[in-house]
Write a structure and sequence with these properties.
447 residues; alpha/beta; Rossmann fold; pyruvate-formate lyase- activating enzyme; six-stranded parallel beta sheet; 16 helices; globular
Length: 447
């Protein structure tokens, strides 16, 4: 019986505008390792990262799988076309195929909707029977099968020494700009603590700096407390994403710190309470930002702040006001993002009906360049939105800003590990901004 072979691919976004730049901040694509873990050992698996590897189009395979987000969709379609011209079937999964199934089926032979743990076993079964279907969905009543990712597919590849691990999936908030709630159908699921701890203990010592990819790791206080207690003896250094409300619980904040948390990415989104109300960010209160930040820093945790611009109440002065806030509060990192209407979100549908999208399918528009305005704001022009974000980004990443923010001694310079991480991340981010600003999605002539 002929052995089967599957090629898994992580598409890039586009071509850097800086010649020779090769994405130094690349992390292991966890989705591919999960697919590999779900694949029986008698099936050959090869994984390729389009960000820094050449895709071997000259090879043969029984199936090619791509993990696709909206920003990588155009490039994924280019890659798929080359395989399909060789009559090798292509399946796409991830957020974009789940939220735009009809579009993706124009470029792929099959799509997998939702979580891979629920659909990939069906794909494998049908591949063995030579009876692949066009659409794979979670079966009614099926539960997510938890697996430990197979990281052997990353052997020899040049990733940062940070391991991507997941404890929970989903988020309780329903922000109109976010696609997470729709992707998971409003549910939040958790892996068994013992399984995650076992996975962490199995990681090589050099890769025990952890990024938990959870959408909002501290959202459920009952679930997270025993998990954090289990992390304490492991003496890890970890980062993740959370909302700020956990800072109001002093006991939980102390436990987060003791468990080894080095930094948290927090979606402040706006300094304008009216904008927060419009986006449905119910957990954010501007008047509490400084108080909560002070508590988090006092616990020795660095904060990466994320800010969105372009909501109806935003005026042109919002950019300088927000930049000054990030500098005064000496944030570890900050991202200044022009509002992005992702397909499948409430925001996308609202702005489409209001005729306020710059491009209907911006991820395919050849005119679109990375970090340009995608929506038509009420109180500023598209050019003002683009320039405001760009100026704030460059101001935050100036050398004087980096040095000043490093001097925050409770968190950013709490110890040598924090200080080195601060400098490395800020320098890489500065370099990436320079290389990506003006980048078109996809690869000219298909790459």
């Amino acid at each position: 019986m002929k052995s089967l072979k599957i090629i898994l691919i992580r598409p890039r976004l586009g071509i850097s505008v800086s010649p020779g730049f090769n994405e130094p901040a690349r992390m292991e694509p966890l989705a591919l390792a999960i697919l590999a873990a779900l694949t029986p050992s008698d099936i050959e698996i090869e994984a390729y990262d389009d960000r820094f590897e050449n895709i071997p189009y000259d090879q043969d395979a029984d199936l090619v799988g791509l993990s696709v987000c909206t920003f990588s969709a155009k490039r994924a379609y280019e890659i798929a076309g080359k395989w399909r011209r060789k009559r090798i079937p292509v399946i796409m999964g991830g957020f974009h195929p789940t939220l735009c199934p009809d579009e993706v089926l124009e470029y792929a032979d099959m799509i997998a909707i939702g979580e891979a743990e629920q659909t990939w076993p069906q794909v494998i079964s049908d591949l063995r029977k030579n009876s692949l279907q066009k659409i794979y969905k979670p079966l009614p009543g099926s539960n997510t099968r938890s697996v430990i990712p197979d990281r052997s597919i990353f052997k020899g590849k040049r990733y940062l020494p940070i391991s991507m691990v997941q404890f929970s999936k989903g988020c309780p908030w329903r922000c109109e700009f976010c696609s997470i709630h729709k992707f998971y159908n409003g549910s939040i699921s958790y892996r068994q603590i013992e399984e995650v701890v076992g996975e962490l203990q199995s990681l090589p010592r050099l890769r025990r700096k952890i990024f938990f990819v959870d959408d909002n790791i501290l959202a459920n206080k009952e679930k997270i407390r025993p998990f954090l207690e289990a992390l304490v003896p492991l003496k890890l250094s970890w980062s993740s994403q959370a909302d700020m409300s956990f800072a109001d619980d002093e006991e939980l904040l102390s436990l987060v710190s003791r468990s080894g948390c080095q930094s948290l990415t927090i979606g402040f989104e706006s300094l304008n309470q009216s904008s927060l109300k419009q986006m449905g960010k119910a957990c954010n209160t501007v008047s509490l930002y400084k108080k909560r930040l002070n508590k988090i820093r006092r616990a020795g945790i660095m904060v990466y702040g994320s800010f969105l611009f372009g909501y109806d109440a935003d005026m042109p002065d919002i950019f300088k006001k927000t930049l000054q806030f990030t500098l005064n509060e000496k944030l570890f990192m900050a991202n200044f993002i022009p509002l992005q209407a992702l397909p499948g979100t409430q925001l996308y549908e609202r702005l489409r009906q209001e005729n306020r999208l710059v491009y209907d399918k911006w991820w395919l528009a050849p005119q679109y360049h990375w970090n340009e305005a995608l929506v038509k704001p009420r109180n500023m022009t598209c050019d003002e939105l683009t320039k405001g974000c760009c100026d704030a980004r460059h101001g935050f990443h100036s050398y004087s800003s980096i040095f000043s923010r490093l001097m925050e001694r409770r968190a950013n310079a709490k110890n040598l590990n924090n200080a080195l991480s601060f400098l490395l991340v800020n320098c890489i981010s500065r370099q990436e901004i320079k290389s990506k600003t003006g980048m078109q999605l996809g690869v000219p002539n298909g790459g």
